[in-house]
Amino acid sequence: MEPIxxxxxxxxxxxxxxDIDVLIASTPVNVFYLTGLPTLHxxxxxxxxxxxxxxPSLSLVRRDGEESLIMWITYRSADxxxxxxxxxxxxxxxxxxxxxxDKIEEWGLSISKIGYESLMPSYQSEYLRNKFPxxxxxxxxxxxxxxxxxxxxxxxxxxKKSTQISEKAILNMIEASYExxxxxxxxxxxxxxxxxxxxxxWDHLTMNLGPSDPEAPGVGTTLxxxxxxxxxxxxxxxxxxxxxxxxxxxxxxxxxxxxxxxNLIEIQEFCEQSIYPGLNIKELYSNASKFxxxxxxxxxxxxxxxxxxxxxxxxxxxxxxxxxxxxxxxxMVFDIEIWQNFKNQGLMGIEDCYRIKSNGCERxxxxxxxxxxx
Length: 374
Hints:
The chain is an alpha+beta fold and 374 residues long. The protein has helices spanning 8-18, 28-35, 47-50, 78-81, 93-106, 122-131, 141-149, 153-176, 183-196, 257-274, 281-295; strands at 22-25, 58-62, 67-72, 87-90, 113-116, 136-139, 201-209, 229-237, 240-241, 244-249, 301-307, 315-318, 333-341, 347-357, 360-363, 372-373. It folds into two domains: 8-148, Creatinase/prolidase N-terminal domain (Creatine Amidinohydrolase, Chain A, domain 1, 3-Layer(aba) Sandwich); 153-373, Creatinase/methionine aminopeptidase superfamily (Creatine Amidinohydrolase, Alpha-Beta Complex).
């Protein structure tokens, strides 16, 4: 079986750059990335995720790219999902750590530099520190991120499919909308669409009807004519996520909203047209912020872009909070979202998915960017 996103050569380069001799994955998302083992909560049967507290799955990758997998001994189908040949079955948390330490010793790395995740459970990290007192332990989060930021063709394919399903869910929500429909009913439409399209589930179902809290829909809020309503959907397709949002109005668009949306679209397209491999991310953010200020005479737009893949926000590439000081690279996949406060209805905005190609930026989304009106 071929890896999905894991690339041995890239891994070797990343571990060399970070000077890590062996990197240990302990969270379900990074174990999935390194091995393909269905450890995610959206697996067809998420049993490995559910039983993680009793039978933890871990994976190790050596500086030369060689891998080892530690997993629940009762699970007999690893060879159907994982490309790793060195697999060890365990039946308890302690057994998992014994297997990990045995592999480190077998590889002759007991006094080496060991990278681990900051989210590794304390019983695991403490076991390793006690077992290998002469080893150097370092935070491996950035190494995992550096591996995952560049997507394989298979990963891009999965994100594209996820994006298509998210957009269909949004269109179905828009089509079904009428004055008086509740957020509960709209959530049901989104979920049904996602499942009917064959996806494993949803990463997020963010939605505001007028001034309602977009992060907490499903409380019975009703849609009212003249309000701005945002549908922000992230579908999960074979483990990979998308992030798309659109605005809807029943009746007449509120005064000033269309002008703001046109500005936000123009800023988003400025980013899209400016990005190319080699451009420093901080430079892009600076240029986009200046362009935004030249365009918007009242209020402030929030310019944000975050990497997407196995997680909706792998990391913020650029935002008012954080800007990475590194160049864009070919096959990074991310979203660009531009927001602005609108009167008493919170944030309105536009959000789409993109991929960097050798000659620039490719938009993966296909929905019209306008405010939809019914």
